């Protein structure tokens, strides 16, 4: 593939696939702390539930960690 084709392909992937966008942001070193904080709060909600139903949802937390 030519360089222009690769650039177009990467930009299409970046704009259309959210998980690829997060991966590329982390790979390039941008927004790492923002993304880490987002997942940290989500994992905390699963591991340390609050409210009426204090159900530990370990499976969901593990899925986020594996991402």
Structure, described:
- The chain is mostly helical and 67 residues long.
- Helix content is 75%, strand content 0%.
- It contains 4 helices and no strands.
- It has helices at residues 3-16, 18-28, 32-47, 58-66.
- Helix 1 (3-16) packs across helix 2 (18-28) and helix 3 runs antiparallel to helix 4 (58-66).
- The longest helix is centred in the middle third of the chain and has 16 residues, at 32-47.
- The radius of gyration is 17 Å and the shape is elongated.
- The two termini are 29 Å apart.
- The model has no long low-confidence stretch (mean pLDDT 78).
Topology:
Blueprint: H1 3-16, H2 18-28, H3 32-47, H4 58-66
Helix pairs in contact: 1-2, 3-4
């Amino acid at each position: 593939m030519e360089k222009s084709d690769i650039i177009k392909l990467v930009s299409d992937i970046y704009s259309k696939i959210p998980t690829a966008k997060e991966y590329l942001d982390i790979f390039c070193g941008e927004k790492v702390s923002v993304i880490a904080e987002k997942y940290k709060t989500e994992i905390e909600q699963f591991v340390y539930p609050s409210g009426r139903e204090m159900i530990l949802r370990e499976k969901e937390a593990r899925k986020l960690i594996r991402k």
